[in-house]
Amino acid sequence: MRTVYLDHNATTPVLPEVFEAMRPYFTENFGNASSIHQSGRLAKAGLEQARQDIASLIGCQAAEIYFTSGGTESDNFAIKGIAFANRGQGKHIITSSIEHHAVEVSCKFLEKEGFEVTYLPVDSDGLVDPNDLKKAIRPDTILVTIMYANNETGIIQDIKSLSAVTREAGVYFHSDAVQATGKIPYKIKDIGCDLLSISAHKIYGPKGVGLIYIKAGTKIQPWNEGGGHEQGRRAGTENVAGAVGLAEALRIADLDLQAETEKLLSMTTGFYNKLKDIIPDIHLNGSFKTRVPNTLNISFKAIEGESIVLSLDLNGIMVSTGSACTSGATDPSHVLRAMGLTPDLAHGSIRFSFGRSNSENDIDYIVSILAREVKRLRSISPLYAEKG
Ligand SMILES: *Cc1c(COP(=O)(O)O)cnc(C)c1O
């Protein structure tokens, strides 16, 4: 059966070049980067080269990059690390109501630890208003954490304005840039953030590795305790192959950014236009303008997203409802609810996330299967029959 993978925001395949760049660090150069002998030095050299390469790609100093086990750890590290190191200055944290669970649950944890968290609303396009942020900042605010691009909708925040407002108030600013990285061009110094999270497996790198950028001079509590790895801030034998893979994945993403953007935009636009012509009562969540080029989040009136996912899967098409981490849960997406969608429409939403494994000739195939399946599901839906 023909398969079409449309879930690149959940994860991506490792590119062959990335795999090849990593290979020597599993075999010949397997050493522990902390060992002082030749094998260790080779591993250390690979690790530090990766750090250097990434620093020049994202526009920061190599010493400001700390490798982690991925986006989730980076988010936890940023939020808990800043909170605990700066609790003497205040106990107030600001975030948005559409964050990834790694951020949301870290904030919820801090609330149990006596911190106060403000969850900023978003408009119907999923955007945080920098004026709302300005008003929410208090003398005891120690951290603002707002994501760059949303994993469920692809909506891109006005991150420079949000960062500028935060900086003006002298408060630390963190951004989860896991979904923005490799999809929109940015440099750390242009954003002006103090902390930023990146994950490798969303950009055709390996799973289980990521990084956190921490601006020099930032007061943050170390994460893992143990040896003095990662400048004493994140103990644990370094995942050298993973770091090398992340660097290579970032290099390729940067190199191909323009071509990929054009290709993805053409695919998502073509897909949406065709869909809209053939299937009635669909709703694009978030505006077309302020989104990463690969993601479309669409609600299908009167049917459950889960039913669509399953029937598409039987036809070899892989999509998801909302984020991968919440699939299986029956609560409607907190992101779509925050954008003002009714529970009904939020329940009927599907995320289509395109990527390198797709081509233009997938479009007609998925549109035709989708049209057939939506029609079938609606024909057995009492909700749709009622409304005609
Ligand atoms: C995937 C994702 C994460 C988590 O990254 P992992 O490396 O899978 O832990 C965090 N934030 C966003 C926005 C994501 O899409």
Structure description:
Helices cover 42% and strands 13% of the residues. It has 388 residues and is of the alpha/beta class. It folds into 2 domains: 4-11 and 257-385, Alpha-Beta Complex (Aspartate Aminotransferase, domain 1), CATH 3.90.1150; 16-252, Aspartate Aminotransferase, domain 2. Helix 6 (159-168) links the parallel strand 5 (141-145) and strand 6. Helix 2 (38-58) runs parallel beside helix 9 and helix 10 crosses helix 13 (360-379). The longest helix has 39 residues, at 240-278. Pyridoxal-5'-phosphate is lined by residues 70-72, 75, 100, 102, 147, 151, 176, 178-179, 199, 201-202, 210. Pyridoxal-5'-phosphate binds next to helix 3.
Helix percentage range = 40-55%
| Radius of gyration, in angstroms, nearest whole number | 22 Å
The CATH C-level name of the largest domain is Alpha Beta
β-strand percent reads 5-15%
The CATH topology of the largest domain, please?
A: Aspartate Aminotransferase, domain 2
Number of domains: 2
Task: Kindly list the characteristics that best describe this protein.
binds pyridoxal-5'-phosphate; alpha/beta; Aspartate Aminotransferase, domain 2; 7-stranded mixed beta sheet; Aspartate Aminotransferase, domain 1; 3-stranded antiparallel beta sheet; 388 residues; globular; 42% helix; 14 helices
Topology:
Layout: E1 4-5, H1 16-22, H2 38-58, E2 65-68, H3 71-85, E3 92-96, H4 101-112, E4 116-120, H5 130-136, E5 141-145, H6 159-168, E6 172-176, H7 188-191, E7 195-199, E8 210-214, H8 229-232, H9 240-278, E9 282-284, E10 295-300, H10 305-313, E11 317-318, H11 334-338, H12 343-347, E12 349-353, H13 360-379, H14 382-387
Parallel strand pairs: 1-11, 3-4, 3-5, 5-6, 6-7
Antiparallel strand pairs: 2-8, 7-8, 9-10, 10-12
Helix pairs in contact: 1-9, 2-9, 3-4, 5-6, 9-13, 10-13
The structure holds pyridoxal-5'-phosphate.
Pyridoxal-5'-phosphate (PLP) binds at residues 70-72, 75, 100, 102, 147, 151, 176, 178-179, 199, 201-202, 210.
